[in-house]
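Quick illustration, no need to memorize.
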Amino acid sequence: MHDLVIRGGTVFDGTGGKPFEADIAIDGQTIVAVGKIEGQGREEIDARGQIVTPGFIDVHTHYDGQVTWDPYLQPSTFHGVTTAVLGNCGVGFAPCKPEQREWLLGLMEGVEDIPGTALAEGIRWNWESFPDYMNAVEVSPLALDVGLQVPHAAVRAYVMGDRAPALEPATAEETEEMARLVVEALDAGALGFSTSRTLKHRDKHGASTPTLKAEAEELHGIARAMGKAGKGVLQLIADFKDTDAEFAMLRGMVEISGRPMSITIEQDDRWPTVWKRVLDNIAAANAAGLSIKGQVPPRATGLLLGLTASLNPFVMHQTFRQIWGAPLETQVKALNDPEFRAKLLAEEPAYPAGEIIEMICTAYHKMFALGEVPNYEPAPGESVKARAERAGKNPREIVLDLMLERDGKALIYFPLMNYYSGSLADVETMLTHPNTAFGLSDGGAHCGIICDASFPSTLLTHWGRDRTRGRKLPLEWLIHGLTGRNADLVGLKDRGIVAPGMKADVNVIDFDRLKLYSPHIVNDLPAGGKRLIQHADGYTASVVSGSVAFRNGQPTGALNGRLVRGAQARPSGARLPAAAD
């Protein structure tokens, strides 16, 4: 008798090898057999006609606050995620002195668009140091596993005080203290260290993230300490405007520490070819024996614009600002009023020089209607610009009409990054590059404008089954990227492969029925904060540490998740398939 038996599914084991039909037996938190299982299970799942995969590992989320009040980390767990890695991009909530709490909330609100009121209401602040924060997460109920990274912004402010957000350089003593705190966090079980060097990251008042101009001495000093400790991964985002010089400094962190690094890769319309140069530099580093990966998304970084979202194409219009923030019904009534509508459409707002908000409001060739089932690779002929040209109308009229659909709840899809060519051809290059990994879902972040926690579902449906504007990619390879490869990326070698001896994190998916729905706004954060969530059909069951934690994407009430402290070795008794790395 086994605790759980999954019967007759087509197993994609996470190694990238060909799928095969098998039963899976689980006892406790461990897979004990894969093949023909004669014994019965105290619980059984009929997986005939379905695919069975390892649980998905999302290496790039921002649930750093939400994890302390929400055991389910939705919407990621609607999409088969059984392990989430937090603390990316240098932002998080520890270490933190009591007088810095409000500032850290404002930084997270600005950088990751998480409502500050929700964070202030939901976070109990029963920590100061990073080990204290880990203890607080460890005692929080969890339905999935989480791993934490120590964020540079919090560490820098803890050591440097107001000099950190002022972007002043660290002294040698301050760098030494930051390095000590990072190693302290790693010794307590942090998976790694993250930082940000992008102008896109600003606090709620518009000030740059405090790590933006951290100098080589500071970054290399922290990396050197990590190397001496022999622990942790490095994760970061940078603009790479001075591409080769910037990369050389970051490459130096890996050379000094010997620790693996992953770097955000996205195509920015302002510098549409920089990502290629960064990937070339990553390839050269790997050829020299350095472990550096580009973290890449499976679709455009897509903004969702509308009356219920945080932004829409009229937010810079003074006429619209008269109703912005009013109840939805009030906004819809005003926008349907002929006089108000005419005044709004005729208005020419002033946009701040060099800011991305102008593109968001005026790049009509990148605005698309978002239906009930989203199309994440829309053709240029479906854009607002093309529709306006065909109708002989001002594009603003089309935008306004789209926003008013579904009683003002409709959303417009704006592929901000990775869609310069009007297709996902460049994303395909990113995904299939030998030195990249699947990431950047930003689960838990950008609550009112982006909902990319559904990336796993996009990889399976769009790239593995439905794509029409280019080639599809092998399903076994896609699943390998979501599981075994991502497990290796962050040092969690106890999971990501369906094999005897491995951790029993497993998805049962009705692949033929797998369907992704469009995001929508809900107001279920603390203090009534709003966020976008996105559902999918087809996730029959997600097993976490041997217990069915989610059925059809919904929680069962099982809370078998835990805080993962540090890198996890391959279980000594694991019997891996031949295709395993």
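Residues 53 and 507 are 5 Å apart (CA to CA).
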